[in-house]
Write a structure and sequence with these properties.
Largest sheet: 6 strands, antiparallel
Shape: elongated
Helix content: 25-40%
Radius of gyration: 38 Å
Strand content: 25-35%
């Protein structure tokens, strides 16, 4: 057994450039002052209590710190500054006092190290680094690998006695996932002095759990060689957890406007590898929130992550598991549960999908922790986190931290759920309005609607087609500003009003007149919204051609693909302003004749707008695509054109093709 270190020898500090004073006993009698301390603080009578040795009026805080160090046994650091007298030319001076409990020949005491931080010498800078790092443990590491503990703390933190050598016995307390990085960083610093080595790693504590520790090692150079290192280590678990919380919220917030799956994907990437070797999230279907009694329910795998070095995780699609009794107990109790796995990573059946069971076995899983996921007190699923290989099985502290992380994610997950619900509502509303095109004598019609990939990009776009009693055809395409449920609702109102006007006014009313009527009605009924639209009339003539008349309210121009010739945009004599921005402005009707075999395409701007590219670029891409696929049947043509969109915005299209006689 290694004996405890003896009393501190005051002579150790006589030659140091830092000011050192030693105080002993409950009255803090001044028992030693080195030369640097006498120069900095003034020589004080030895043997006097600190209150008498330092009678200055502003010394009360310093004296209270000495009391606190003796009472708690923990080091303290006290900053101080001295302003020059008014009118003096010298600059202000700044100091740091490090007060550390030490063992003195006369019993317990306090070592005070005072440093003038305004000095610019290399020695003072290094000592400042040491003082700033002083916390739970301080030791000196010698070139032969031996180490002496200056400020005790190792045994209190780890439960093991200090053994005096930085060897494999010390390594046994480092988390296996952190050991290689710690060794690599230390080797680099040792080979390249005078670099300061800093590293954060997990250290096994007395109860078997791991806590994050930050260490800072400063070399002591002699003739250009680092013959010793002074190291300070601090327990930073609380600050590490706080930083993890901020990182979690920041990463999940980045995708909180996306889908629920995206939000959970961001969450598992925070957990792995810091808190687990792998993590998979499984959600119950919304119809099963809250968890029904005695009903068979399934959980779908929606997100997963694994640390580097493990087998590639399986794909997400088509994976679910029937929620069995064990998982139901975990969900109903709202408490995490850890399963220690036998050699080979064999998982009890029914905890995770079969494909995940096989992966855990292949990845040599040693434990699986199930954590219920609840939002607004409703359980929506669970997470399954594993340790693999030589990673220690998590203890209660690690499991509690994992639970806390998932709890912190409730707000962004709630937002994703709300957006998902709004998206479903808007899409149902959207699809209720976007009915299949009618049959048209002498022509073909096809239409499609593609919602945006982002959860908050919903609503707004619509198409419509109406056949009058005389077989003339009306085509509409429109886009209400906004990407939310309000836009979808306004779209439904405007589309319904336009349909009513079209049917009531009949085929004799011009497109310009109809759009003006729609604008007047929207303004009068207080549902006005910035809206672009193209309203088109098509009438078949005896020779097989079609007379086209249209009015454009600020919308991308229709695209004509002639049976022969190059595709072109129908700009007419210019566009009128969008609806509900300049009420009362006269609108224009444009005309053209379509030949048999011609194709007319109406579309919304989601088809041609791409971030970072101009609208002209999008229109050129559309021209090239329709030219290449012009002979495809209309449904296939629209499918090909949908590939032009990056799905950032919703897209509607309706296409007309005149039959060849």
């Amino acid at each position: 057994m290694v004996s405890a270190p003896g009393p501190l020898d005051p002579g150790l500090f006589e030659e140091t450039v830092a000011a050192v004073a030693l105080f002993a006993g409950p009255e803090h009698r001044l028992v030693h002052q080195n030369a640097a301390s006498c120069r900095m603080l003034g020589a004080r009578p030895l043997g006097l209590p600190a209150r008498d040795a330092f009678p200055e009026p502003d010394a009360d805080e310093f004296l209270s710190v000495l009391d606190d160090v003796i009472a708690t046994g923990r080091p303290r650091r006290l900053p101080d500054s001295r302003e020059p007298d008014p009118g003096a030319t010298e600059q202000a001076r700044y100091f740091v006092y490090s007060c550390t409990p030490v063992a003195l020949p006369d019993g317990p005491g306090v070592m005070v190290v005072a440093l003038d931080t305004t000095a610019e010498t290399l020695a003072l800078e290094r000592f400042e680094a040491l003082v700033s790092a002083v916390s739970q443990m301080v030791w000196v590491l010698h070139a032969d690998g031996s180490a002496e503990e200056i400020v005790p703390g190792w045994e209190e933190l780890t439960g093991a006695p200090w053994h005096g050598w930085m060897d494999e016995r010390w390594d046994a307390y480092i988390h296996p996932r952190d050991l290689e990085g710690l060794r690599r960083g230390w080797l680099s610093a040792a080979q390249n002095p005078p670099g300061v080595f800093e590293h954060t790693f997990r250290l096994r504590t007395a109860d078997g759990s791991y806590r994050h520790v930050f260490t800072r090692c400063v070399p002591i150079l002699r003739k250009g060689r680092a013959e010793e290192w002074v190291a300070a280590a601090a327990d930073v678990e609380d600050s590490w957890v706080a930083a993890l919380r901020e990182r979690l919220l920041a990463q999940v917030a980045e995708v909180s406007g996306g889908s629920l799956d995206d939000a959970f994907d961001a969450l598992v990437r925070v957990i792995v590898p810091d808190l687990a070797d792998s993590c998979v999230v499984l959600l119950l279907s919304p119809e099963e929130w809250p968890l029904p009694d005695h009903a068979t329910v399934t959980a779908r795998r929606v997100a997963s992550a694994t640390r580097p070095g493990l087998p590639t995780r399986p794909a997400l699609k088509g994976q679910s598991v029937t929620v069995g009794g064990v998982v139901r107990e975990v969900l109903e109790s709202r408490a995490p549960r850890t399963f220690r796995l036998p050699a080979g990573g064999r998982v009890p059946p029914g905890l995770v999908p079969a494909v995940t069971e096989r992966w855990l076995a292949a990845a040599n899983a040693t434990s699986l922790t199930l954590v219920p996921l609840a939002v607004d007190d409703i359980v929506i699923g669970y997470a399954a986190a594993s340790t693999n290989g030589d990673t220690p099985v998590p203890g209660p502290a690690e499991v509690e931290l994992l639970r806390r992380v998932f709890h912190l994610a409730q707000r962004p997950i709630r937002r994703a759920l709300d957006l998902q619900q709004a998206r479903r509502t808007a899409l149902r509303l959207q699809r209720a309005h976007l009915t299949d095109p009618p049959a048209v004598p002498g022509a073909s019609l096809a239409a499609c609607y593609q919602p945006a990939s982002s959860a908050d990009e919903i609503g707004g776009d619509w198409y419509d087609a109406i056949v009058h009693a005389d077989d003339s055809l009306v085509l509409d395409i429109g886009d209400v500003a906004g990407h939310d449920l309000t836009a979808a609702t306004t779209m439904g109102q405007l589309r319904s009003m336009l349909r009513g006007l079209v049917w009531n006014k009949g085929p004799g009313c011009t497109p310009a007149a109809l759009l003006s009527m729609l604008e007047d009605a929207a303004e009068g009924l207080d549902i006005a919204s910035f809206t672009t639209a193209v309203h088109t009339h098509l009438r078949r003539r005896p020779d097989g051609t079609w007379a086209m008349a249209w009015s454009n309210a600020g919308h991308p121009p229709p695209l004509l693909v002639p049976a022969r010739g190059r595709p072109l945009f129908l700009t007419g004599t210019g566009e009128d302003p969008p609806l509900c921005v300049a009420a009362g402005v006269p609108r224009t009707t444009h005309t053209r004749v379509l030949a048999p075999g011609d194709t007319l395409l109406h579309y919304t701007d989601g088809l041609i707008e791409t971030p970072g590219a101009s609208l002209d670029d999008g229109q050129r891409r559309l021209l090239r695509a329709v030219a290449h696929h012009r002979d495809e049947p209309l449904p296939e043509l629209l499918r090909r054109l949908r590939e032009l969109s990056d799905d950032r915005d919703d897209t509607a299209m309706i296409a007309f093709r005149a039959h060849v006689n």
